[in-house]
Structure formats: C-alpha cells, structure tokens
C-alpha cells in the first residue's frame, strides 16, 4: 500500500513538473474550468454578469509561492454565506472557502496563494438562496506548489503558530507562522514527499461573536496571511483561533484601536 501511495505521489509530482516546464510561456488555460465547474458545482448556474463580487491580483506574480490576491464584496441585495476560491491549473484547485457573517457582508479579503503555473483564479459567492456568482482573473506564476525543501530546516517550524495580529483603521490583519506543507514538495535529504501539514481553519471573533471564518486548502501560502475589512468601527477584543491538520490550536487576541 505504501509503495502504491508513493508511486501515486511521484506520478502526480512528475506531471506537475512537466506541466510547469511546458507552461513557462503559456497563458491561463480556459479549457479547464468547464470540467472543474462540473466537478465542484455540478449543473448549477453561475452568474458572471454581476457587479458586487471582484477578485484582484497581479498580472504576473514575482513568486509563485506568495501570490497576493484580494476579494471584495460591495453593497448588494444578497446575503452572502460563502465565497469559494479556485485556481484552475493548480494540483489543489480549491484554495479556500470563506464563511461570511452579518458583520462581513461588505468586505475586502486579502490573502496569499500558491500557484504552480499560469492560471485563472476565480471566486464564487453563494447566497442564502443557493445562488452562485463569479468573478475571475488570469495570473502568470509558476512553481509555488511543488519543488524541493529542506524539511529539517529549523526556520520552517521555529515559533510555530506564532500569530501577528493587528486591528486598526477598520482592518484586521494576521499572519501565522506555519510551513503549510502541500504534500507535493520533496525532501532534499530523502527525496520523498513531505506529508501535507497546513493551517486548515481560521476563525475571527469580536467580543465572542464570529466575524469571519475560512477553511484553507494546500494552495494557501506558507505562513498564512489574511487581511480583511469590517464595515463598522469595532470596539473591544478581536480573537483569532486557528487549527492545523495535526490538530494544533493557535490563539491570539488584540484590542481594537
């Protein structure tokens, strides 16, 4: 069984490496989305002709391991419950799901993703009626999900779970110290695959009430970064609770300014 699992990982890594080489000068491929949509959303209609949901990012990323993107939701007539982020050409196409509350219906969310090759990056919002809305951008990037790493490098896990948390000017900003191994990276020493180990969930609470939550997948960058706006001036404590795939729990809180 272990041999089969290793072979499958090796095959997946080999395909990713080949695609990266072939796509060095390639544009984002529009042919992937119909298959991804059918897998993720079946035959549900997705409205693209909308004005309240937007994703922004660089045309070309300086690093495929840290690609900055921002998702914004402006005033609208819907109650948005979830926002899904997908990266068409990534081995882990589903990057994250954001869970909105009444405190985050109008919001800007900034994060950093990993991209293996040029791809469309898209966000799909779902309202309380099950209706779907989408925005999409192409980004050129490479090599962010795989490659070789020194798993024994102490800097990768030094201060594991240390949280930088700020709440000021109606924005909450956080960064969590964590290697966020994708499961597709190879160890420099053994040549084997480093097991997946990521910050899976992050939840933000204000005076005990949830503001925003996220479920991350492997396409979120090392040392996960998240910055989001809140529409009203908050007073009191902002608490963050994060849990990784080894069930480690990290917590911090800060008083708003």
From TrEMBL:
* Residue ranges of domain Ig-like SoxY in the record: 38-145
Q: Does the keyword Transmembrane helix apply?
A: no
Extent of the signal sequence:
1-26
User: What keywords would UniProt list here?
Assistant: Signal
InterPro entries, A to Z: Fuse-rel_SoxYZ, Ig-like_fold, Ig_E-set, SoxY, SoxY_sf, SoxZ_dom
Give the domain of life.
Bacteria
Q: Which residues form the Sulphur oxidation protein SoxZ domain?
A: 172-254
Please indicate if the UniProt record lists Signal as a keyword. Answer: yes
Would you tell me the protein name for this molecule?
A: Sulphur oxidation protein SoxZ
């Amino acid at each position: 069984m272990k041999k089969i699992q290793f072979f499958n990982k090796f095959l997946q890594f080999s395909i990713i490496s080949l695609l990266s080489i072939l796509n060095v000068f390639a544009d984002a491929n529009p042919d992937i989305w119909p298959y991804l949509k059918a897998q993720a959303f079946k035959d549900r209609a997705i409205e693209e002709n909308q004005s309240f949901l937007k994703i922004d990012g660089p045309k070309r990323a300086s690093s495929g391991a840290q690609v900055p993107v921002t998702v914004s939701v402006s005033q609208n007539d819907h109650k948005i419950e979830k926002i899904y982020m997908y990266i068409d050409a990534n081995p882990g196409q589903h990057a994250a799901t954001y869970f909105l509350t009444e405190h985050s219906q109008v919001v800007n969310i900034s994060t950093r993703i990993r991209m293996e090759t040029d791809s469309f990056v898209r966000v799909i919002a779902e309202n309380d009626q099950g209706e779907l809305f989408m925005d999409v951008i192409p980004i050129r990037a490479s090599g962010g999900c795989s490659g070789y790493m020194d798993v024994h490098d102490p800097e990768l896990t030094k201060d594991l779970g240390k949280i930088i948390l700020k709440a000021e000017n109606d924005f909450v900003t956080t960064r969590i110290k964590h290697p966020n191994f994708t499961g597709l990276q190879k160890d420099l020493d053994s040549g084997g695959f480093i097991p997946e180990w990521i910050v899976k969930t992050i939840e933000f609470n204000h005076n005990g009430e949830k503001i925003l939550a996220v479920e991350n997948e492997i396409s979120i960058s090392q040392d996960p970064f998240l910055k989001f706006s809140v529409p009203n001036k908050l007073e009191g404590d902002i608490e963050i609770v994060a849990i990784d795939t080894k069930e480690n729990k990290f917590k911090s809180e800060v008083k708003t300014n």
